[in-house]
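Sequence in, structure out. Go.
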Amino acid sequence: MHLFTRPATRFVRLMVTGGQGHARAGVSELQVFNYLCDDLTLGADLSWMDDVQDQQYWVDPLAQDRGAGPHLLDVAKDRGMQHTRLRIFNEPRSESTGQPTPIPRQGPERSLASAKWIKQRGMGLGIDFHYADSWADPSKQPKPRAWAQLEFTDLSKAVYDYTADYLKRLIRQGTTPEKVAVGNEIINGFMYGSEAAHIGTTKPPYFVDQADIYQSKPGGGLLWKYWRSTDPAEQQLYDQAWDRFTRWPQPG
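Output:
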């Protein structure tokens, strides 16, 4: 992907540089977005820069003048990036086994350093709390292992305390975020618990394999399957799920 940041760009050329034998090349879809609108902030999630701390990046690494670098953010800023989001995993774990990863990349501690790199370059900072130990999206929203067996009232308090504490840490080190996301892609709710049996989720594997832990207590998953149900019991489950999902935690 190339970001077009030059004013007055009118044409885009697509070049196919290789193929096998006499195979024909085709393009099924090509999208070009205008990143030059006056009221548009150009940003992206660059959390994975934590995974490549020891690598160098340059605008044109093979040229005599390599351009901006050597940090990934230097290149991104040079290409017009203004804002960077960081996803925060509570305690980074493998999506296949549920075990802590050898290096807690994109966890709270390491992300503090990433936040500093962003602010040092004058870029905007966004924080996305996944409230999970690995990827959270519409098909999977596992609770953090440390919270998995909490009663819902205690879970609500844990969310509040964790969020408030981390934001205070960011502020104290001089990296106040401009944007904060409470959860990630939460159209189906988040921090699934015992309601997962009704949702029917099977991802990630450890969430099912260790159901006695992760699904032992209610969470914030939404039961869309019961939307507009005429069965009173199903409608009650639907309403209760929304009550849990929308309950803003209170400080303890």
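Check: The mean pLDDT is 91. The first helix runs from residue 72 to 78.
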